[in-house]
Amino acid sequence: MAEDFVVTPWEVHGVIDYAKLIERFGTQPIQPELIERVRKIAGDVHPMLSRGIFYSHRDFNWILDEYEKGNRFVLYTGRGPSSGIHLGHMLPWILTRWLQAKFQVKLYFQITDDEKFLFKDFESLNDAKRIAYDNILDIIATGFDPKLTRIFLDTEYIHHMYPVAVRVAKHVTFSTTRAVFGFEHSNNIGEIFYTSMQAVPCFLESIEQGKNVPCIIPCGIDQDPHFRITRDVAPLLGFYKPALLHCKLLPSLQGFGAKMSSSQPETVIFAADSEKETRRKIGNALTGGRATLEEQRRLGANPDICVVYANYQYIFEPDEDHLKVVHDTCKSGARLCGECKAELADKVVAFLAKHHERREKARDHVEEFMLRD
Ligand code: TRP
Question: What residues have CB less than 8 Å from 251, skipping those under 6 apart?
Answer without folding.
Answer: 257, 258, 260, 307, 310
